[in-house]
Amino acid sequence: MANMYNVTLIFNPDKLKAVISEFNKLGITGITVTHVEGCGAQHGFKGYYRGVETEIQLLPKVKVEVIVSAIPVDKVIETAAAVLDSKEIGAGKIFVYDVEKVYRVRTKETDFDALQDKRS
């Protein structure tokens, strides 16, 4: 059985279309996107709401998750890092987790077979 990985990216929303486009070029067809808030090294910023200064600690981010097995995980990481690299704090993070099991409910397929796009 091939190794399966969950690659999770958290980054600024303005890079979402570019990430999806590059992942599609790699052949990644299953992508989950969640709009989240978070903070890291930049610790938020001070802003004004109705004339009152407020401290904004949680910034809008996007969380993208893909499960890969046929595509080398290092290629996915390299591609994502190239798209996200802005040379600035807050460009993003990439997390990689082992996936133990995948189950496609409709067809009852498991693991590698459950990840394949068979619509073609």
Produce the secondary structure layout.
Layout: E1 5-11, H1 16-26, E2 32-38, E3 45-49, E4 52-56, E5 59-68, H2 73-84, E6 93-98, H3 111-115
Antiparallel strand pairs: 1-5, 1-6, 2-5, 3-4
Helix pairs in contact: 1-2
Q: How would you sum up this structure, described in words?
A:
With 120 residues, the protein is of the alpha+beta class. The protein is 23% helix and 33% strand. The chain contains 3 helices and 6 strands. The strands form 2 sheets. A 4-stranded antiparallel sheet has the order 2-5-1-6, covered by helices on one side. It has a two-stranded antiparallel ribbon with strand order 3-4. The longest helix has 12 residues, at 73-84. The radius of gyration is 17 Å and the shape is elongated.
Quaternary structure state of the chains depicted: single chain
Percentage beta strand: 25-35%
Number of helices: 3
Largest sheet: 4 strands, antiparallel
Structural class: alpha+beta
Helix content: 10-25%
Rg = 17 Å
Q: Largest beta sheet: what is the strand line-up?
A: 2-5-1-6
Q: Tags for this entry?
A:
120 residues; two-stranded antiparallel ribbon; alpha+beta; 4-stranded antiparallel sheet; elongated; 23% helix
